[in-house]
Design brief:
The complex is a heterodimer of chains A (about 120) and B (about 110). By secondary structure, chain A is mainly beta. Helices cover about 0% and strands about 45% of the residues of chain A. Chain A contains no helices and eleven strands. In chain A, strand 5 (about 45-50) and strand 6 (about 55) form a beta hairpin. Chain A is globular. Chain B is mainly beta. Chain B has no helices and eleven strands. Chain B has strands spanning about 5, 10-15, 20-25, 30-40, 45-50, 55-60, 60-65, 70-75, 85-90, 100, 105-110. In chain B, the strands form two sheets. In chain B, strands 2, 4, 5, 9, 10 and 11 form a six-stranded mixed sheet that branches. In chain B, a hairpin with a 7-residue loop joins strand 9 and strand 10. Classes of the chains: A mainly beta (about 120), B mainly beta (about 110). Chains A and B meet through strand 4, strand 5, strand 9 and strand 10 of A and strand 4, strand 5, strand 9 and strand 10 of B.
Chain lengths: ~120, ~110
């Protein structure tokens, strides 16, 4: 299992450009999440999904969009990039559904994408 | 609003010098408290989940404990390879399993 994979690892954008951060998991997890981490800060939730076709906003959703057409993939779209979106972005996944697995609530993280907006 | 506060922000220890990291939390019904380790330039790596007050879990030199208001991560006889940032997060009951993170404790273990 590759676990949670993210691409690209690094990216520099100019103000106003758009891009999509890719996230994929091969653990058959139902729940997926996007977080951002600013220097010296904890992770903040941007968006999450509890299954294909179902997404919802987290704490800091402004300036971002998501879609989830398959169980495996959960891309994050940045429209009209701004310097405030300079951050490290982490994707995570968890099994999510109770009853079968003791680690259903555990979130497993990808390696991150470091984004700079200039 | 769920809140997590970790202290200290940074901790420097000599190899073999035991210590504890603190995680204080307020949450509207705790579903679980999670500890993660994060190395520079990498994603958080899962360590422990604690579900109820009085619960303890151990892994090598690490031991996590939980009360109704806080959690401790005890590090016994640390080694330089234990140097990392340790993150604490809470999961509220009834949520879609979202985590609320603290800002972390940066641990440095000197040889």
């Amino acid at each position: 299992n590759a676990g949670v994979t993210q691409t690209p690892k690094f990216r520099i954008l100019k103000i106003g450009q758009s891009m999509t951060l890719q996230c994929a998991q091969d653990m058959n997890h139902n729940y997926m999440y996007w977080y951002r981490q600013d220097p010296g800060m904890g992770l903040k939730l941007i968006y999450y999904s509890v299954g294909a076709g179902i997404t919802d906003k987290g704490e800091v959703p402004n300036g971002y969009n998501v879609s989830r057409s398959t169980t495996e993939d959960f891309p994050l779209r940045l429209e009209l990039a701004a310097p405030s979106q300079t951050s490290v972005y982490f994707c995570a996944s968890s099994y999510g559904r109770q009853g079968v697995r003791s680690d259903a609530d555990t979130q497993y993280f990808g390696p991150g994408t470091r984004l700079t907006v200039l | 609003e769920d809140q997590v506060t970790q202290s200290p922000e940074a901790l420097r220890l000599q190899e073999g010098e035991s210590s504890s990291l603190n995680c204080s939390y307020t949450v509207s019904g705790l579903r679980g408290l999670f500890w993660y380790r994060q190395d520079p330039g990498k994603g958080p790596e899962f360590l422990f989940t604690l579900y109820s007050a009085g619960e303890e879990k151990e892994k090598e030199r690490l031991k996590a404990t939980l009360t109704k208001k806080e959690s401790f991560l005890h590090i016994t006889a640390p080694k330089p390879e234990d140097s990392a940032t340790y993150l604490c997060a809470v999961q509220a009951a009834g949520s879609a399993r979202q985590l609320t993170f603290g800002s972390g404790t940066q641990l440095t273990v000197l040889p």
